[in-house]
């Protein structure tokens, strides 16, 4: 079965997505997510100009060989642009192979290790009492795990707190929004939120928080210690992931579990985090970490060291990526949790899929392949609009990690 076409589809049903559809000479097609939030067209160019010519005529069944050809054959390796491009090709080839075999992809990955995938939802609020009430709404909907974020008084645009109710879409049309950050004000306020969440809702569910790359190692260590009484499931991205050694200092000071990895795109960029057990959950995703083939490799390494998966699943990862994640999560032995921000009905109309949410969990559905597709006619109704992620600055005007 050979590749006869590779279509790169850009669509924007409320937010931008990049999807590839690989077509074969047996009429079987496969899809892959290639969305890089805020820099989508860089991946489009790499796919269209540099990868598509290499793929035409190739055997669609040779998934691993194609991955090796695209990763090692490019000479320039890793990175946030090339790895989503390789990921999308890889994901589409797994989709094709599943359809050709008449099996859901998780069957090709060794079959189901679990019946359902525990997910966590995003509770937010402009004040502690708002977030506490929002946590209650997620628990009432059957979620067993909830991430809690709250605005820091006096700071505009705190990460994770949306301006339109439940939805939180950080990218905005036009040039980057600039937000103000103050670590002292955040550290003074954050523990209040978790004390109140546990006081009101108790300890019978998993409580998570995303620090979003903002702290120094010692600040992260102090936050971890301060939150120990609240038995966090994890604090996420306490410090920037690329500084792997920073996590050693955090580990020396606190037993609060740590998760990182959503911006990591290769096994080499999380190797020490895993082998030195500096983290408890690795958040690498299908789209950003080289596809199903590479994510499996990362999770196999993680399994050796007792690190579990906690893959990124924000709304800028398309339903194609989420569908692939559900298949990987169904099969791997060291599944931890899956982030789940439901896409809008507008997005779901462009990406029909068979995964289903029920009572705090996702199930993959039984369709052959990934059980997701892109409706190209519906996609064409939503033209691309350039959008950027925000930029954070400290009160003195210097750039900080957003
Ligand atoms: C966040 C994301 O979901 C998360 O854990 O870190 O919302 C992240 O900010 C976006 O995916 C960036 O595009
Ligand atoms: Mg995050």
Structure in words:
- By secondary structure, the chain is of the alpha/beta class.
- It has helices spanning 40-55, 63-72, 82-101, 105-108, 128-140, 183-201, 217-227, 246-253, 271-275, 291-304, 319-331, 345-350, 376-380, and strands at 3-11, 17-24, 29-33, 117-125, 145-150, 172-173, 178-181, 206-210, 234-236, 258-260, 281-282, 308-309, 338-339, 356-358, 361-363, 387-388, 391-394, 399-400.
- Helix 3 (82-101) packs across helix 10 (291-304).
- The protein starts with a strand and ends with a strand.
- Magnesium ion is lined by residues 210, 212, 236-237, 262.
- D-mannonic acid binds at residues 37, 170, 210, 212, 262, 312, 314, 316, 339, 389.
Could you outline the blueprint of secondary structure elements for this entry?
Blueprint: E1 3-11, E2 17-24, E3 29-33, H1 40-55, H2 63-72, H3 82-101, H4 105-108, E4 117-125, H5 128-140, E5 145-150, E6 172-173, E7 178-181, H6 183-201, E8 206-210, H7 217-227, E9 234-236, H8 246-253, E10 258-260, H9 271-275, E11 281-282, H10 291-304, E12 308-309, H11 319-331, E13 338-339, H12 345-350, E14 356-358, E15 361-363, H13 376-380, E16 387-388, E17 391-394, E18 399-400
Parallel strand pairs: 4-5, 4-13, 5-8, 7-17, 8-9, 9-10, 10-11, 11-12
Antiparallel strand pairs: 1-2, 2-3, 4-15, 6-16, 14-15, 17-18
Helix pairs in contact: 1-3, 2-3, 3-10, 5-6, 6-7, 7-8
The protein binds D-mannonic acid (CS2) and magnesium ion.
